[in-house]
Amino acid sequence: MYTFYVPVKLIGGEGAISSHREQFAALGKSCLLVTGRHSAKASGAFQNVTDALESQGISWQVYDAIGENPLLESCREAGRMAQACGADFVVGIGGGSPMDAAKAVAALAGNPELPQEELFACRWEKEPLPIVLVGTTSGTGSEVSPTSVLTCPDGRKRSITHPALFAAVAFGDPRYTYTMSWSSTVSTGLDALSHAVEGYFSPKSSKITDGFAEMAIPVLWKHLYALWKGEELTETMHRELYEASLWAGYVLASNGTSFPHPFGYFLTEQFQVPHGRACTTFMPAFFDWVSQKAPKKAGKVLELCGCSGEVFRQVTGELSDTGWISMTEEEIQALRPRFTGLKHYGNVPGGYDADRALDVYKKLFLKTAEK
Amino acid sequence: MYTFYVPVKLIGGEGAISSHREQFAALGKSCLLVTGRHSAKASGAFQNVTDALESQGISWQVYDAIGENPLLESCREAGRMAQACGADFVVGIGGGSPMDAAKAVAALAGNPELPQEELFACRWEKEPLPIVLVGTTSGTGSEVSPTSVLTCPDGRKRSITHPALFAAVAFGDPRYTYTMSWSSTVSTGLDALSHAVEGYFSPKSSKITDGFAEMAIPVLWKHLYALWKGEELTETMHRELYEASLWAGYVLASNGTSFPHPFGYFLTEQFQVPHGRACTTFMPAFFDWVSQKAPKKAGKVLELCGCSGEVFRQVTGELSDTGWISMTEEEIQALRPRFTGLKHYGNVPGGYDADRALDVYKKLFLKTAEK
Fold first, then answer.
1. Do A247 and B19 touch (CB under 8 A)?
2. Element (H, E) at A148
3. B291 pLDDT band (50/70/90 cuts)?
4. What span, in angstroms and rounded, lies between the C-alpha atoms of B218 and B228?
5. Cβ–Cβ of B1/A7 closer than 8 Å?
6. Does domain B182-365 have CATH number 3.30.1370.20?
7. Rounded to a whole number, what is the distance in Å from the CA of B9 to chain A's nearest CA?
8. Cβ separation A14–B4 shorter than 8 A
9. pLDDT tens by residue, A196-246
10. Can you give the pLDDT at residue B371?
């Protein structure tokens, strides 16, 4: 049994926005743009969006204070702004952070004072506003997923997933990724690889999502491997990574993530490791596990990458670049409650548990004589 | 540039309906079931749907007079019935005919006296009702497409395509296809192959739709080839054909069809050739054309099928089984207006025109001394 449901109108390719301006007009007369401080403008996406809005007579305001790992409180502030300016829809422009934030802003626009627990339980009084997403990094797949990952006031990352958070329209113009740095390209590319690989092994996977994963994995691997070998960024690389990140997004949207994602959240919160690198830190351990529990699919991943399991683990481990992290036995043991009963374990073939989680953490980060 | 937009919640696999009964309750309290006379019940789908409706306290009525190549006037009658019983949604159960009819019924339920031209221009006053589709044949892909093909009072087949005609939910339980006859299996399998192959060559094709086509083509071909060789039907064959017909449906929904479809409509209207056989009659000519205009993709089709172009043309031609049709030069010339300026020509690589259409018809059906 499987469900495949991604109701996003994905408009992809060069010039996607300027040739589909009418898509904005179909959603209303006024909108709030949600962006970070830099990439929306640097990529040219912001200008293309505002040109389109103006051509359609749509009024707009901007909330441009979304940082990496977006804060719930920033989204609330933007939600109030959306309400105040009578926005009919919300446009998120940027990488995963502004896009995830835009989803939360859409949900909060009608309910800006909604208590945190109600928001994470998707118990809103007024339905979220329609959402338009414009990606500028090649990783998160947020364009086609119904999930928003936010950082709460207690510093913890938490996710909301709801069908109302699917974008009505997502624009995927690969040119917006051409200004990405080497470091962002690696980190977001690793994130996309994680989505494809983690989702490929989910019990929710279907032949349809396997098809998307099997398209995405070899393309992502080819370029990540080239970057690991020290090759330079090219536009072809950016474009292909971007396309493949969207395919991985269809896997993510349908199957969710496995244990590398929640394990990675801690590294981001505690050590400010960029999201893609943080998750992929656990890819070697994940691949060890699935090689035992789902050897046929694990073999297929290696066939798609054209490499051995050893190389797969080495490259993902080294690109993650978290070998400098060191934790004590006590610090690791303190993670037990956090890693107990994670919903993501349902997505791991053969299941998983906190004991194993702590073992993985120890093997990676316990750097004392006890190790 | 491409658009990928299939907002259908596809729930597939054995037991899909009985384990997702709540999907009906989300759509309302009352519905009209639209079926043909036979396969909905014979397949077990009808019983599964009504069990689910009753478990959710949803009242239902049935319109079960949809024939092959559904008549607009039957849909109008069912639309009046849906209006009279206050249906909140419409459920189509069966092959392409009841599913296509259900889409038109949903559109007519709020506007049962809508003039024909308004309907085909999608100018309805009230929005179509939500639609649930349950497929029982492995061919049409109607489950995931926004198109309804109807036979008008003048005997002509015409299609309506509109996003509001996408199903809200489609159930794809392959067991419903296990009762299909050899003849229906061949005809609907050929239809699915046509969707995948015609769409693969469309200028609208994207890497995403190519992915679906490249998944569907080898599976459809494997079983059609086996049937051509005289192998018996098996449940595995039915199941795999059904899954692949849905993948081909994603290609159809995104890219539409090419010239074999409209050329086939005439054979169905005039000679009662089943739809899949009628379209595939023109597959050898289509394949000749694309081998010239898009040789790389044509080569890929043959690679996916693992056969030569000669075998591809022979098998599709012979399974179509329309060699008995004979037409005069005058009859063929009379088709010129019909085949002039078809919108489908925009979907043919390098374009197409009425002169070529008549040449194809002559080559196939002109069986006089003049040939």
1. no
2. strand A147-151
3. very high
4. 15
5. no
6. no
7. 5
8. no
9. 999 999 999 999 999 999 999 999 999 999 999 999 999 999 999 999 999
10. 45
Task: Please give the average per-residue pLDDT across A303-325, as a whole number.
Answer: 97
> CB distance B8–A5 less than 8 Å?
yes
B102-161 pLDDT, tens per residue?
999 999 999 999 999 999 999 999 999 999 999 999 989 999 999 999 999 999 989 999
- Give the minimum alpha-carbon distance from B214 to chain A in angstroms, rounded to a whole number: 9
Beta strands in B20-163, from DSSP E residues, in sequence order: 30-35, 59-63, 89-94, 131-135, 147-151, 157-161
Going edge to edge, which strands form the sheet with A169-172? A59-63, A30-35, A89-94, A131-135, A169-172, A2-12, B2-12, B169-172, B131-135, B89-94, B30-35, B59-63
Q: What is the CATH number of domain A183-365?
A: 1.20.1090.10
CA B222 to chain A, closest CA, distance in angstroms equals 17
Give chain B's contact residues with A (Cβ, < 8 Å): 1-16, 19, 206-208, 211-212, 215, 243, 247
Q: Note the pLDDT of residue A139.
A: 86
Say yes or no for a CB contact (<8 Å) between B5 and A8.
yes
Cβ contacts (< 8 Å) between A215 and chain B: which residues? 207, 211
pLDDT confidence tier of residue B368, bands split at 50, 70 and 90: low
Write the ipTM: 0.95
Q: Between chains, do A247 and B211 touch, taking CB under 8 Å as contact?
A: yes
Q: Does domain B9-177 have CATH number 3.30.1360.120?
A: no
Domains in chain A: boundaries = 9-177, 183-365
For position B139, what pLDDT does the model report?
86
- Regarding pTM above 0.90, the answer is yes
| B91 bridge partner residues | B33, B132
What chain A residue is nearest to B15 in terms of C-alpha separation? A1
Helix boundaries (H) for chain A:
22-25, 39-42, 45-55, 72-84, 96-109, 116-120, 182-200, 207-228, 235-255, 260-271, 275-280, 283-293, 295-305, 309-320, 329-333, 354-365
* Chain A residues whose beta carbon lies within 8 Å of the beta carbon of residue B16: 1
